[in-house]
Amino acid sequence: MLGPRLPVRRPGECKCCQPGLRSEARREARPTRRIRVILSPNGTDLKGGIRMPAYVTLLNWTDQGVKSFRQSTQRAKDFTELVEAHGGKVREFLWTVGEYDVVVVADYPDEEFAVAALLKVAEAGNIRSNTLRAFSASEMEGIVARTN
């Protein structure tokens, strides 16, 4: 058994996600209580819970995003704050050369929040995204075991 499910704030349910707030105001409005989960080598937390789903997001800048590229690092910080305020974690935020402009690897508390967070960012008109569910080696071993 996974134990009690912790409440997850959805975008718009807390003051830190209100439209129009500058990053300083979001930091002040953000809840200060943090939950720390320590993972064991097999991908579960020490209480037996399952690791958050991981996603790889491939981003392309729109014409508007290219025109405002100088603010891309601040937008990355704002996105990271949004994800962390709702219990997720951005593992990597990488600017790239090639078919995609940015690659983000993140853990989200659930699929609904993953979609909501990316829609919130896309709403600004700077990016288009393609998101992939990613699996760790231990998760893949579990998937392979189910094929037998």
What fold name goes in the CATH topology slot of the domain at 52-145? Alpha-Beta Plaits
Instruction: Give the tally of β-strands.
Output: 4
- Summing up helix and strand content along with how strands pair, one would put the structural category as alpha+beta
Any idea of the CATH class of the domain at 52-145?
Alpha Beta
Sketch the major β-sheet.
4 strands, antiparallel
Rg on CA atoms, Å: 17 Å
Q: Which regions are unreliable across 5 or more consecutive residues at pLDDT < 50?
A: 1-6, 30-47
Span from first to last CA? 24 Å
The chain-level mean pLDDT equals 79
Biggest sheet strand order reads 2-3-1-4
Q: Shape, please?
A: elongated
Number of DSSP helical runs? 5
CATH homology group of the domain at 52-145: Lrp/AsnC effector binding domain/regulation of amino acid metabolism (RAM) domain
CATH architecture identity of the domain at 52-145: 2-Layer Sandwich
* Helix share, percent: 25-40%
How are helices and strands ordered from N to C? HEHHEEHEH
Strand % is 15-25%
Keyword list:
Alpha-Beta Plaits; 32% helix; 5 helices; elongated; alpha+beta; disordered N terminus; 20% strand; 148 residues
Topology of this structure?
Layout (H helix, E strand, L loop, with lengths): L22 H7 L24 E8 L1 H5 L4 H14 L3 E7 L6 E6 L3 H12 L4 E8 L2 H9 L3
Antiparallel strand pairs: 1-3, 1-4, 2-3
